[in-house]
């Protein structure tokens, strides 16, 4: 029996995750008191295979009952069953924004401060997060991408690491992405902006990509960039990093950065990494915009 505990920060997407786990064939229960977990697992084990995939949402909504979780998990092991823990997380700013948008109160913000509630929850979940089998950072994930990530882990079986790589093209004239781990400036590459028949297209158009990548400097740079990122990834995984944000910028975020982001995305996917590609400024327009 595949037994998964879904937990994590309030606002990080546990409600969505449990719905998607149901779609993936899991028998799901939300907010089961932890003290009941061993008995529930035993009952599922006696179902003669009718229930072979179970997901339980356990979080700080359980109040005082939450403290029983670790004893209950020890008891699950003692009766001969194993379990996995999926921990959903997100940046503080993203969590605060989600609470404000939904006008919900954080379950631990007794004085009304969302940030104080987040800080208290982090401290309370620290031990559980350290035990997690999979950590998913939902800061940048759309609902569809979260569903795909769950399928990737629990159906396709890709549990080799928790690292998700985000590649984002951007324009320096609109500012550097605040959450970028690594920023690469490609403004030295040939600029399609100065080619009249290419100016209105983007790096997602093959004619623009061909123009940029036909230059030897573009090929050499993209190869060296991939080699460096490929070298760094195992070290980030070893350190326990669960997301890596690579930002690739040109002047306007329309031509060169989009092209190099696309090429790097293809190379990393071919290597088997989990990669999500976005283009922050590709569709912005303006007379003086340059790619």
What is the CATH homologous superfamily assignment of the largest domain?
P-loop containing nucleotide triphosphate hydrolases
The CATH architecture of the largest domain is: 3-Layer(aba) Sandwich
Largest sheet: 5 strands, parallel
CATH topology title of the largest domain:
Rossmann fold
Kindly name the structural category: alpha/beta
Low-confidence stretches: 285-290
| Number of E-state strands | 9
Radius of gyration using CA atoms only:
22 Å
- CATH classification, class level of the largest domain: Alpha Beta
Distance between the termini: 53 Å
Written description of the protein model:
The chain has 291 residues and is an alpha/beta fold. The protein has 2 domains: 2-154, P-loop containing nucleotide triphosphate hydrolases (Rossmann fold, 3-Layer(aba) Sandwich); 164-279, no CATH class. 40% of the residues lie in helices and 18% in strands. It is built from 9 helices and 9 strands. The chain has helices at 14-23, 37-45, 69-78, 92-102, 114-130, 143-154, 206-213, 216-238, 256-270, and strands at residues 2-8, 27-30, 53-57, 84-89, 134-137, 164-171, 182-185, 243-250, 275-279. A 5-stranded parallel sheet has the order 2-3-1-4-5, sandwiched between helices. The protein has a 4-stranded parallel sheet with strand order 7-8-6-9, covered by helices on one side. Helix 1 (14-23) crosses helix 6 (143-154). Mean pLDDT is 88; it is low at 285-290.
